[in-house]
From TrEMBL:
It catalyses: (R)-4'-phospho-S-sulfopantetheine + H2O = (R)-S-sulfopantetheine + phosphate; (R)-4'-phosphopantetheine sulfonate + H2O = (R)-pantetheine sulfonate + phosphate; (R)-4'-phosphopantetheine + H2O = (R)-pantetheine + phosphate. This is 4'-phosphopantetheine phosphatase. One of its GO terms (molecular function) is hydrolase activity. Its cofactor is Ni(2+); Mn(2+). Keywords: Acetylation, ATP-binding, Coenzyme A biosynthesis, Cytoplasm, Hydrolase, Manganese, Metal-binding, Nickel, Nitration, Nucleotide-binding, Phosphoprotein. The lineage of its organism: Eukaryota, Metazoa, Chordata, Craniata, Vertebrata.
Amino acid sequence: MSWPGIFKMAECGASGSGSSGDSFDKSITLPPDEIFRNLENAKRFAIDIGGSLTKLAYYSTVQHKVAKVRSFDHSGKDAEQDHESPYEISVQEEVTARLHFVKFENTYIEACLDFIKDHLVNTETKVIQATGGGAYKFKDLIEEKLQLKVDKEDVMTCLIKGCNFVLKNIPQEAFVYQKDSDPEFRFQTNHPNIFPYLLVNIGSGVSIVKVETEDRFEWIGGSSIGGGTFWGLGALLTKTKKFDELLHLASRGQHANVDMLVQDIYGGAHQTLGLSGSLIASSFGKSATADQEFSQEDMAKSLLHMISNDIGQLACLYARLHHLDRVYFGGFFIRGHPVTMRTITYSINFFSKGEVQALFLRHEGYLGAIGAFLKGAEQDNPNQYSWGENYAGSSGLMSSSPDVCPAQRTRSGTFDLLEMDRLERPLVNLPLLLDPSSYVPDTVDLTDDALARKYWLSCFEEALDGVVKRAVASQPGSVDAAERAQKFRQKYWNKLQTLRQQPFAYGTLTVRSLLDTREHCLNEFNFPDPYSKVKQKENGAALKCFQKVVCALDTLDWEERQLALVQGLLAGNVFDWGAKAVSEVLESDPQFGFEEAKRKLEERPWLVDCYNKWLQRLKGPPHKCALIFADNSGVDVILGVFPFVRELLSRGTEVILACNSGPALNDVTYSESLIVAERIAAMDPVVHSALREERLLLVQTGSSSPCLDLSRLDKGLAVLVRERSTDLVVIEGMGRAVHTNYYAALHCESLKLAVIKNSWLAERLGGRLFSVIFKYEVPAQ
């Protein structure tokens, strides 16, 4: 994340990355709202100082607004008439924990320490955990500026702790590099069990560590030929003293002008030997015999290949020796540079014949700082919590490739940020996933699909004014709502522009990540639930219709009722304020209701129609327990989901109804569902007895997203799913069943149903607006 115009470069500090001098740039002016955020509530610090970059970590408490719902206290029947809505809404302050990580060049260290000292209001800590070679070099400066005692931590222990932390908490942390792809970063789904793995840290030399558990790892090898070798020999060969400039030279070079290739030795006969003619037979081999000058670019490229191939072969041999197929590379030699990742990837693939994978990390530059922080915070046991990346406050992965983003080539004046929010409850896999290690939540990878990427980015841009309007309207009594909404607009707009240029910034780009980024930005500017009033009104209106709807259903014969229940589920799903086609109808026609929504639905046969198969299943024995992921408030959950739940309960099936822990669009939240269920139970004996006997259980998902990641669900929900022997999963809505989980494979039966409320997507799927997806799947025996 770079702020042009903010930084005034002093001559003494303009040496840039890799400077070995001790002069500092003291003329820097920092925007406190953007970089060292929330310092007034900072509690604990850690720092990792390398040869050219400093990474600072601190923990803070963040105060933000949350919308709370509370049921009215009805003391009698007449009181029921006093309130149109089923509950009241209040906005309260809530305190949550956040981890901040800031990365900047060492040339700014004194100015940054001064800034922290000036803005640090109150901190519990008297010690700062420090790691990296610079922890010794800058010890006195840190203690003088911050008045904190420096406690030095072991570099390798910090790296391992940091690596474990990001692999466990950031689902798309690791990626492979593919030079011919566009973009070149291909993200991997983290395996539920991250151990064992090999960590190859390429600093001045190379350290190779086998990591077996959270606390058990061993240094198994290394080499003195590493990043320092490339830098040192490169400086001798090219007279270039700066590491990044040396890499830039290499990116423009042709190593074959300097290296002796197989075809140079064997000519055309190399094919009979089964060898590629472009294979390097001898690094720098031509320099001994050729009577010519070699360009700096070609020599730098040859040197890079020589060292990368050596490291790749070494890593491959250790991986095979210890039977490991996952090798993570980190250290200043990598630092997101495409040319280094490309050569290491090629080397690993060549020497392992594709059996070992070279993996890189989005946040590898922060590993030491994260680990040092965790070491200092052990009494708080941060590993007992789950953490989530806050997209609103994080820079994302920035490519330094000249072809991808020229602005990133010069890193001077650039501050990279990472923020992680502590989640209220630990998140785990849904136990019913068929293969958690291969589960991918998202249906379409927008990083791959350029046409879809262009459409969805434009779609979110066009919707921005409507979101701003809704946010302001949700806080009519606030004097600064309009100002905050404009700040939200600017921040989210900037994120969208970044993603146009660098779609890999936060991992694989998907509709889910675009929605989640928007929710993070809304929360950042204290718009916790822009649709709270809409949901309150729609829940109240739908509750008044509940008895009429179930009475009508009860008059139907069994087979007619099953179809009517499914049509009710689908009609309810039309009421989605996140879909432009629907929000326009709801805003222009306040009378649009449940029956009107039914008439909007596509006639059978539906676009995906497994209804007959589902009906046949219902003629068999009842399911033991159904897990239902609900979508929208109002008509959807009350007139669509609850009648369906009621029918399952009547069949003898227990039901777990899972709703979002926090708000997103007009999706029903767990706290709202409790009040809705209480009101329905007062009207309906089936629901009343099921709640009382705990045959109907309401739980939270652990998510605040319009989509659904089945690998990050509330631990309590997962425990309940196991205890109740759940054998049916129902996923409802476009976000949860189409944008995500359309291809999710489960151990048990599943129903995925949604109404397609986006014309472009409907056309792409071969349907039209309001086409129906009704996908019933039975796992293979």
